[in-house]
């Protein structure tokens, strides 16, 4: 019952099938080869033509299966693994056509009835298929188009709108914590709330928290803040800038949410970097029931360096409790034990492995802090860091902080105990997600792994994504410090979060003139979609242009 077509050019599949027969669910290419003694470059070109051809005839949810001899693919699945330059680089070649590697498994010719491996050097001879692998590719989601976005929110008694910093366009209103969401971040929040309700009366006050804050965030480094300019006519003293951005009368904002100074009269707005000020405002108003655990949750926004666990947007869960003076230590212990119990239960249900959860004194935590912990320290004194460890890092990552604030209540008999938890980091650690960007993916295959809020160990649908390394060096302006966080934020924007690492390679000072030059190594890699070599090179060229324009450096 099958139709067999001969003399098909695998790089021109569309020409061999009429439009009604082009939506293939699977396309198999077992042991592609140019023939005779063709080298790796020619075979890469063959695969490149094949994958581009597949993109024209494959169904949206279809698969492309490519079987290769041991070592040819160039992925870690090959044992032994060839050097990259001596392999067919199949994942990078497929990425250029919009495909990601979703599965790899051994190719077992003996299980296929009537199959024979033949064609060695274009002859009717068999070849060795021991250790051969079948690579299964699927379509990647399309590249995101980051168009300027205006967002409306409540500020006091009025609604205001503002232009969202470009790096946050795909994160500002995702609704991960809403009632109908099955996102693991919401599931963990709900499970923590349920566990805490067994020990404390709970009051959830998250729905009315404003997204914008006004003024100067006390004690916080201003380069870590996403500054916002309200649309014209919605704040006193606004005027239009020539580039189309709108400038409050003291501080302006570029497309990265950076401050542009030089105007009079301070009237500043910024995206909330923490929920703590909201809790402090509730306390000062007296809308606070002693003994009741207040639960605040929502997204917060902080500029930070690029690392797998540092995120410019994440979901914070803030727990606030007023207790009698002298009992705060026992309440802290009770709060932490309840969180520990709930998290142990979650992790055992996900992987069967018990995580190590520890409460570490802030004084003994050392100076090497994660971006999350370092920023929390800027917000105010911390008594304890809450750390969760899983294999292979049993020492633990900081996922929360505990504070006690005796001076925030009018009553001298009460003390405020608060715990701030990073729900995104918790989801990563408990579900085995290695890259924070995966939490924000638009690929539906992510949420399919968590049906109806069920937590499971995450299995990546994009295996061995290719990485592309580029260097950039530049002279710094005389007498000025270099804002590395602004550099990382700019790289996030230019690449659409495709930069996975930025490392300082060289810090050079020119003898005689004293001019300083920095050299950074920038690594481009996507965790969830196809990224080709040419696309990464274009991002690097764009990055060079942008750092010269926005950071006032001179490229070398």
Automatic annotation (TrEMBL):
Protein's name according to its UniProt entry: phenylalanine--tRNA ligase
PANTHER family with a match to the protein in the record: FERREDOXIN-FOLD ANTICODON-BINDING DOMAIN-CONTAINING PROTEIN 1, PHENYLALANYL-TRNA SYNTHETASE
Swiss-Prot/TrEMBL GO biological process terms: rRNA base methylation; translation
EC number, as in UniProt: 6.1.1.20
Keywords assigned: Aminoacyl-tRNA synthetase, ATP-binding, Ligase, Mitochondrion, Nucleotide-binding, Protein biosynthesis, Transit peptide
InterPro entries: aa-tRNA-synth_II/BPL/LPL, BMT5-like, Fdx_antiC-bd, Fdx_antiC-bd_sf, SAM-dependent_MTases_sf
GO molecular function: ATP binding; phenylalanine-tRNA ligase activity; rRNA (uridine-N3-)-methyltransferase activity
Gene field: Fdxacb1
Cellular location(s): Mitochondrion matrix
SMART domains assigned: FDX-ACB (SM00896)
Family recorded in the similarity comment: Belongs to the class-II aminoacyl-tRNA synthetase family.
Domain FDX-ACB residue range list: 463-556
Domain of life the protein comes from: Eukaryota
Keyword S-adenosyl-L-methionine tagged: no
Any one annotated GO CC term: mitochondrial matrix
S-adenosyl-L-methionine recorded as keyword: no
Catalytic reactions of this protein: tRNA(Phe) + L-phenylalanine + ATP = L-phenylalanyl-tRNA(Phe) + AMP + diphosphate + H(+)
Gene3D superfamilies, A to Z: Bira Bifunctional Protein, Domain 2, Ferrodoxin-fold anticodon-binding domain, Vaccinia Virus protein VP39
């Amino acid at each position: 019952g099958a139709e067999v077509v001969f003399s098909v050019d695998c790089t021109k599949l569309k020409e061999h099938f009429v439009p009604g027969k082009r939506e293939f669910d699977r396309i198999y290419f077992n042991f592609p080869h140019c023939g005779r003694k063709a080298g790796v470059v020619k075979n890469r070109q063959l695969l490149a033509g094949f994958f581009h051809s597949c993109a024209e005839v494959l169904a949206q949810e279809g698969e492309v299966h490519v079987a290769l001899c041991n070592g040819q693919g160039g992925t870690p699945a090959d044992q032994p693994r060839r050097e990259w330059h001596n392999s067919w680089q199949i994942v990078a070649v497929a990425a250029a056509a919009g495909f990601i590697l979703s599965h790899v498994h051994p190719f077992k010719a003996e299980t296929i009835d009537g199959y024979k491996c033949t064609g060695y050097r274009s002859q009717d001879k068999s070849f060795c298929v021991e250790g051969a692998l079948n690579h299964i590719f699927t379509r990647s989601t399309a590249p995101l188009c980051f168009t300027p976005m205006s967002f409306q929110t409540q500020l006091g008694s009025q609604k205001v709108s503002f232009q969202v910093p470009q790096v946050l366009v795909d994160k500002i209103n995702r609704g991960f914590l809403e009632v109908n969401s099955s996102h693991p971040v919401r599931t963990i929040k709900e499970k923590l709330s349920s566990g805490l309700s067994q020990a404390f009366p709970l009051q959830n006050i998250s729905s009315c928290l404003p997204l914008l804050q006004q003024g100067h965030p006390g004690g916080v480094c201003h380069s870590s803040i996403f500054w916002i300019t309200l649309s014209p006519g919605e704040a006193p003293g606004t005027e239009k800038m020539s580039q189309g951005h709108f400038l409050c009368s003291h501080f302006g904002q570029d497309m990265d949410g950076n401050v542009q100074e030089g105007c009079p009269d301070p009237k500043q707005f910024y995206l909330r970097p923490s929920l703590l000020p909201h809790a402090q405002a509730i306390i000062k108003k007296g809308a606070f029931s002693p003994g009741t655990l207040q639960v605040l949750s929502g997204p917060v926004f902080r500029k930070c360096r690029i690392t797998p666990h540092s995120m410019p947007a994440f979901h914070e869960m803030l727990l606030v409790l007023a207790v009698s003076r002298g009992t705060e230590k026992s309440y802290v212990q009770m709060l932490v034990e309840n969180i520990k119990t709930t998290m142990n239960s979650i992790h055992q249900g996900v992987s069967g492995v018990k995580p190590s959860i520890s409460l570490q004194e802030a004084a003994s935590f050392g100076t090497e802090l994660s971006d999350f912990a370092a920023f929390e320290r800027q917000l105010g004194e911390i008594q304890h860091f809450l750390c969760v460890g899983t294999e292979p890092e049993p020492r633990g990552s900081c996922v929360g902080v505990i504070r006690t604030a005796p001076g925030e209540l009018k009553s001298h008999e009460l003390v405020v105990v608060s715990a701030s938890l990073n729900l995104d980091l918790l989801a990563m650690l408990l579900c085995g997600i290695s890259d924070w960007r995966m939490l924000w993916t638009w690929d539906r295959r992510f949420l399919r792994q968590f049906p109806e809020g069920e937590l499971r160990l995450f299995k990546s649908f994009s295996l061995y994504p290719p990485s592309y390394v580029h260097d950039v060096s530049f002279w710094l302006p005389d007498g000025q410090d270099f804002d590395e966080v602004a550099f990382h934020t700019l790289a996030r924007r230019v690449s659409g979060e495709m930069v996975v690492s930025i490392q300082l390679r060289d810090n050079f000072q020119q003898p005689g003139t004293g001019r300083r030059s920095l050299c950074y190594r920038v690594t481009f890699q996507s965790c969830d979609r196809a990224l080709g070599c040419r696309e990464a090179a274009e991002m690097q060229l764009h990055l060079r242009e942008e750092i010269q324009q926005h950071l006032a450096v001179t490229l070398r």
